[in-house]
Amino acid sequence: MFKRQSGKNKSYVRQLSCIAKYLIPSFLLVFLGIVFFSSAGRDDAYIAYWSSYSLARFGEILNYNGERVEQGSSLLQVLVLAFINALSGINIASLGKILSVLCGVLGLAAVYRLALKVRCQSGFYTALLTATSVYFIYWSFGGLESTIVSLVTLLLILSYGAYVTESRRIHLVCSIVVTPLFATVRPEMPIVLTCILVGTIVVVYLKKHISVSNSETSCQVFLLRLFKLLGISIIICMLVFAFRIWYFNSLFPQPVSAKSEGVSWMVFKSGAHYFLEQTLMSPSMAIIALVTTCGVGYAIQKQCTENRISPYILLSLLFLGTYISFIFFSGGDWMEGGRFLVHMLPVAVMFIPFLLNSLIKSRLVLRGTILLLFAVQMQAIVNFAKTQSTGMPVWDGFDHYKSFALEYRASDFSWFERTNRVNMRDIPAVYQLNHIVERLLAYKNDEVHIMSMQMGMVAYYIVKKHFGRVRTVDMRGLTDRIFTGCDITSNLPRSQKGLDLTYQYYFTNREAIEKKSGLDGPDIIFDLFGDLIRPQTVVDYGYRILYVQIGKVHSNSKWLPGRSIFATQFIAVRNDLEVALADFKRTKLSFQQLQP
Question: Residue 572: enclosing H or E segment and its boundaries?
Fold first, then answer.
């Protein structure tokens, strides 16, 4: 009786231990994100949020102008957000952040599972190191698709690895379900998926013919299953492309068309620079990057020298190699926090415990090493919050949430928007632009045309309130095809931010551009200004400045101020419409007046 009770107690303790290993990393991810960043990332997320809103509200994926243009980069994110919003009614801007955090937490569970498949007893350490990786934390609170990508990637490797290893029907069904999720989570993923599977087939084929062991039979079985997965993947990816052509009349989302310059040496150099800059940003980041590289190298060496093939390791390594190649050939990204690295970060981090468990036999030394890496990661979090974050520490977030810009109706916005300094910058602009648009709509009794290089939060809320009565003109070409489809502007250089069209170029060639594109002159121009964009340029071409913001958006944190976010922004109206705004008070706002 005593032994039976003792056995039950041990089983109960093991279950509690297993649950704790799942919950501790998840708690750390959420806790560190809230404490150090509150709300992170950029307002580009609103471009995808609009597509979700239009699908939930109107039953169609539309751009700001009501056209079938895919302005979001993640079709999967658009579909998921629209579905949840239709069921719950929760504001999509808040849902985007919540979904991002949730996918980060689920990603920890998935990488825990994958690490156990790769090497027993590595799960907890892998989840712990992922949960305390600053880039992963930051973009879990960023609202873009980064953690959705990493989660779906992990699920793909788990399902494909299970099917290749065991070939059970449930694993095949899981693979078939996960494949369209992967193919739609980012525009490049159909190509990435094909490269992964073809690369895996090549490696297994070579292993079969080079190895002198008894692994030939298993290699043959692996090859048959991999070819089946490749066939399924090609069919699903072709269906995704067919849908995009039918619905959007384009193989890829509009941001790809606006940003892609094709393959060139300059693009490759930019991608390589981005990768190295983000991985070696600080000494602490460089240490983690070095250990990760050693882990990946060790895994490659083991797969080359051992007779036994691990599909989980092979798929993981080929995903890392393929996605790093994509970063190089795409030119990288302009946002802070290694956004593209987050897509593959959990898979890469998994090879740190894989290496340490293989080389360190003493459990005490192993735990000490993991603890040391944990300390290094914490230092990286503090350094990033101090120098790069667009959010703010939670204690300053509470102060801003209670008092920031209440006269500009900041209370209409969520916690995430009132504690992210990029969003805070735009709240007064939304208020002022909305008043101007309402005046012009009443005066013109027709569409109001708004031109800008900024199509994030401001455009989202203005279009949401006046959909069908305003028309946006995106100079970067991310949300419409006005300039990417015009002969005069379509051949302009492209960058990580989109089409490189300046106001000077537009106004100089205005008549020809408007004739070719069918565009009427914009009624309103709003934008950020600085060294490259000056309000005086639009004044010289027949516009009047009605609203200007100056200064910086501070976090008010002495120790963790984050990166500099300039509040400099203007709104200008065409001179012939001045009569509709004759009594409108011209405003120059110093942003420091709004902050506690």
Answer: strand 569-574
Contact call for residues 303 and 119 (beta carbons, < 8 A): no
Which helix H or strand E contains 450, and what residues bound it? strand 448-452
Burial of 408 (0-12, 13-18, 19+ CB in 10 A): middle
| Tokens coding 80 | 């998921």
pLDDT surpasses 80 at 97:
yes
| Helix (H) / strand (E) containing 33 | helix 2-36
What is the distance between the alpha carbons of residues 476 and 498, in angstroms, rounded to a whole number?
A: 5
340, two tokens: 């593209």
Mean pLDDT of 263-292: 94
> 144 to each of 39, 394, 474, how far by Cα in Å?
12, 21, 20
Q: d(Cα 592, Cα 314) in Å, to the nearest integer?
A: 53
Instruction: Decide: pTM greater than 0.85.
Output: yes
Could you tell me how far CA 394 lies from the centroid of its own chain?
22
The single-letter DSSP state of residue 566 is B
Q: Residue 341 is inside which H or E element, if any? A: helix 339-342
Please tell me the distance from the alpha carbon of residue 301 to that of residue 354, in angstroms, as a whole number.
Answer: 13
- Give the DSSP H or E segment for 248: helix 216-248
**Number of other CB atoms surrounding residue 270 within 10 Å:** 20
Q: What's the pLDDT at 216?
A: 60
Q: Are strands 494-495 and 498-499 parallel, antiparallel or unpaired?
A: antiparallel
